[in-house]
Amino acid sequence: MLRRNRGRRNPPPSQNRPDSSRLAPEVIANPVNQAAHWSQDVYSLQALMDKFPLPQIVRCSDRLLSGEERGLPVNVYVPLLLFSSRAARKLLAKHVAPDTRGQDQPRLTETDESIVIPGDYDGHFLRLQARTTNDISMVRSLKFIVKNPVPAFVNFTPVVSFMSDQSQYSIRTDSSYPNNSNNINHSHMNGDSYSHTGSGASKGSKGSSKKSGPQAYMVHQQKVLYPPGSVFMVRGTIKGLASHKKRSREVTLLKCTDASGKEIHIPSDQPGEFIEVEIPTNGSNKLSMLPRDLIAANRYPGLVRFVYGDHAPRLTPCSLMFNLVDTFEEESVIGCLLYPKHAMMIEVPFMSSLSFQVALNRDALMTLPLPRHAVGVVRARQETFVRDLKLKVKFLHRVNAATHESEIGEEEDMPSATMRARLFINEAFFYL
């Protein structure tokens, strides 16, 4: 399960009693909860925003279904400081991660974890030439990439490569791709030694200098295994021999740079699944696109891969790959969960199905140390937080019927089973 990488986590609630998160010490012994005079009336977030000016201190009045709290990274019953509101267009996406179930090698596939990407997020993404991870028609082999003008690609299965000896020749770099990203984890493999005897760059090589005769050299290289989701920029090819356990074979090597700018050779005769990076049609000389460009393209579903930005996704574990599902406009409230010893920022949509009680003695509560600290946290982090990529946390709860009496109507008798299910058991979500 994906989690926001914020270091500190709350201990999991006890599993021997239902809805134990309501009885946790951070709720019962919370100084804000103890000092608050909670309203008897409960409000939907939209109704609360219409009636009370921000900031406000509230608490959730709905009951989670039994067992739901065990899957949440936060306690929804901790008092909540609602600080400011925001309207933004966002991208809804699914996290894409390696799946090892029933397979010899991990392969990238969509997960159930949902991600929201604000349109003003500063991350740069590569769009892939595939709509989903199951788009078999777009899967390429390394031999296909050797024979076709592919600028960059992503591996869906592990791929073996070898570190390049840069002293043998120079490779032209491409300014359209960042060389300062260090988001790829390299697993250095110990085992048999390989060497490649090159006979010069092939005609397909980019940036190779023309010389009167073949250029012979021996390159002893370190073997590196790249996990699924790695990015490779193609620089050309080399024809040579691969030696292994006193045996040799002719092989075409792809000259590439990885996401950190390291120059590598990839033998093209190994199996695997690879997807091309799409060339943008907006006239830009960069392969990467900002979220606002992805929104403008309005193509869903579609696979993208984060490559660089001022704020890398703070999700763990994270493959940096996502499947864009849709785009939507949304109003939300930015706030802080008031834990006894720290404050955690959270974003709650206006249309949330949760209902809340309001602290009627807000002014007195705002003088307490914890709310004062939370206000400082929001003011310091809000500008970054609202534009950051976030995890969409979903859970089921029983809706407080008092907040929805107007939806039933006075003349209506008992609502239908469908209406009861809609009113009294619902899915809520927030962003972390």
Largest sheet: 13 strands, antiparallel
User: Could you give the count of β-strands?
Assistant: 25
Helix content: 10-25%
Q: Over the alpha carbons, how many angstroms does the gyration radius reach? A: 27 Å
Number of helices: 9
| Overall average residue pLDDT | 81
Biased composition (Low complexity): 175-190, 198-213
Domain CABIT: 104-364
InterPro entries: CABIT_dom
Region (Disordered): 1-24, 173-214
Description:
This is CABIT domain-containing protein. Residues 175-190, 198-213 have a biased composition (Low complexity). Residues 1-24, 173-214 are annotated as: Disordered. InterPro entries: CABIT_dom (IPR025946). The chain folds into 2 domains: 3-87 and 330-431, no CATH class; 136-276, no CATH class. Strand 14 and strand 15 (247-257) form a beta hairpin. The protein is mainly β and 432 residues long. It contains 9 helices and 25 strands. Strands 2, 3, 4, 5, 6, 7, 18, 19, 21, 22, 23, 24 and 25 form a 13-stranded antiparallel beta sheet that branches. Strands 8, 9, 10, 11, 12, 13, 14, 15, 16 and 17 form a 10-stranded antiparallel beta sheet that branches. Mean pLDDT is 81; it is low at 7-17, 167-194, 196-219 and 404-412. It has helices at residues 25-28, 31-35, 45-51, 142-147, 291-297, 362-365, 369-386, 405-408, 417-424, and strands at residues 3-4, 43-44, 56-60, 63-64, 80-99, 107-118, 124-127, 152-155, 159-163, 187-188, 194-201, 217-221, 223-226, 231-244, 247-257, 263-267, 274-276, 288-289, 302-308, 315-316, 321-338, 343-349, 355-358, 390-398, 425-431. The protein is elongated and about 80 Å long.
